[in-house]
């Protein structure tokens, strides 16, 4: 009969493999460190085991949700097999399916794969990443919160390939233009000297056109945790392809992460964002964060017809009057204010929350942001090829 130490080692090894399959960077060295930590510190309670393994395996804040779900399923007193079976059992007719917790699908897939694998079959295999047309369509429509680890990797690759052609705006600067409205005397005289002064070919100046700046204000509170990382991947791809992209994250305070997202490697950029932010997956203070942006950053980054992307679910703790005042001030400072809300993924969404009702009268567009299809629609809208949307104020009428 094997001792308790051997069973503990097997469990920790299996748990580490499950975390790795769910997307966490867990290697053999971390598994050995976890075993040493458990044996050195002793096992007094389930909480001791949780925080000991958490200290070893969790290196980034966004990995906490995956670790928490994996620990709850793996280290149940009655085992995690019953939990997985309960997740797959059909519900009674007429019972609405409750939304799964964050990262639950990835953890369930990882643990299920570990159960079905025999020791003699544990070898490295190649995974065919090619997808059919129907698979790609399913991936485009699938909610970010319901994706497996493999699907999240495919979604990241798809976001990195997206091309954002912004609708150019007219500036005050004049440049040489074949059909300009003002004569360029310097170029005209210089051209006439080349012909000996006998022929004067008029040269013209016209307004310069350039893509407008993009300013993103991203909510990183706990209610937005499933959608923050895909949105940051999108912003990193945009910032990598063009200049004048400014990104701000807010929960209970505002943090400028423009320089962090400017790094070439996406994982390194997101890790830098995680390090810079102090209130990741915490509470929400939209009014206070918008007020700080309007006071400190608006005059610096909202020039030349900037487009603002406000990415939040609109669930606010502060007063409605202050929120309405700050978003109205933001709206007056930019050319377009686009609100991206993941709650629009629900067919029966109604604008009943006070924060949502305070924001809607002051935005130009109200769009979902929960899957690849909605991100593609946003790219078309920014390029001036988007479909006609209803006036955001119409949501207030339907909820009245």
Structure description:
This protein is an alpha/beta fold. The protein is 48% helix and 11% strand. The strands form two sheets. A six-stranded mixed sheet has the order 6-5-4-7-8-9. The longest helix has 18 residues.
Broad structural category: alpha/beta
Shape label:
elongated
DSSP strand count:
9
Give me the side-by-side strand order of the main sheet.
Answer: 6-5-4-7-8-9
Rg over CA atoms, rounded to whole Å, is: 27 Å
Task: Offer a quick outline of the entry.
This protein is α/β, with parallel strands linked by helices and 400 residues long. 48% of the residues lie in helices and 11% in strands.
What is the topology?
Blueprint: H1 4-21, H2 28-41, H3 46-57, H4 64-74, H5 81-88, H6 104-116, H7 133-141, H8 149-161, E1 169-176, E2 182-183, H9 185-194, E3 204-210, E4 214-219, H10 225-241, E5 245-250, E6 254-256, H11 258-261, H12 266-276, H13 286-296, H14 298-301, E7 307-311, H15 320-333, E8 336-340, H16 354-359, E9 365-367, H17 372-382, H18 394-399
Parallel strand pairs: 4-5, 4-7, 7-8, 8-9
Antiparallel strand pairs: 1-3, 2-3, 5-6
Helix pairs in contact: 1-2, 1-6, 2-3, 4-6, 8-10, 13-15
């Amino acid at each position: 009969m094997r001792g308790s130490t051997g069973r503990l080692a097997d469990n920790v090894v299996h748990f580490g493999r499950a975390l790795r399959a769910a997307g966490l960077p867990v290697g053999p060295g971390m598994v050995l460190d976890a075993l040493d930590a458990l044996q050195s510190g002793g096992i007094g309670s389930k909480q001791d085991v949780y925080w000991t393994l958490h200290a070893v395996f969790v290196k980034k804040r966004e990995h906490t949700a995956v670790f928490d779900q994996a620990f709850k399923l793996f280290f149940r007193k009655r085992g995690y097999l019953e939990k997985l079976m309960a997740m797959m059992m059909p519900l009674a007719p007429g019972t609405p399916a409750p939304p799964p917790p964050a990262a639950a699908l990835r953890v369930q897939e990882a643990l299920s794969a570990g159960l079905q694998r025999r020791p003699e079959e544990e070898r490295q295999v190649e995974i065919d990443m090619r997808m059919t047309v129907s698979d790609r369509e399913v991936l485009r429509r699938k909610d970010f919160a319901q994706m497996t680890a493999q699907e999240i990797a495919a979604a990241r690759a798809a976001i990195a390939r997206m091309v954002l052609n912004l609708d150019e705006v007219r500036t005050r600067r004049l440049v040489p233009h074949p059909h300009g409205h003002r004569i360029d005397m310097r170029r005209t005289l210089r051209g006439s000297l080349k012909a000996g002064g006998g022929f004067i070919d008029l040269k013209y100046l016209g307004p310069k056109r350039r893509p407008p700046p993009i300013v993103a204000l991203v909510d990183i509170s706990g209610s937005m945790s499933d959608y923050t990382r895909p949105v940051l991947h999108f912003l990193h791809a945009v910032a990598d392809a063009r200049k004048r992209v400014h990104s701000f994250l807010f929960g209970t305070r505002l943090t400028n992460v423009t320089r962090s997202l400017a790094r070439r490697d996406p994982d390194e950029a997101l890790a830098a964002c995680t390090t810079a932010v102090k209130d990741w997956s915490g509470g929400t203070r939209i009014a206070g964060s918008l007020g700080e942006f309007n006071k400190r950053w608006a005059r610096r980054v909202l020039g030349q017809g900037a487009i603002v992307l406000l990415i939040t679910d609109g669930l606010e703790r502060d007063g409605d009057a202050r929120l309405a005042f700050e978003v109205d001030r933001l709206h007056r400072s930019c050319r377009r204010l686009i609100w991206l809300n993941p709650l629009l993924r629900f067919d029966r969404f109604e604008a009943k929350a006070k924060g949502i009702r305070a924001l809607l009268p002051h935005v130009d567009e109200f769009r979902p942001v929960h899957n690849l299809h909605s991100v593609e629609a946003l790219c078309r809208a920014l390029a001036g090829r988007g479909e006609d949307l209803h006036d955001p104020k119409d949501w207030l009428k339907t909820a009245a």
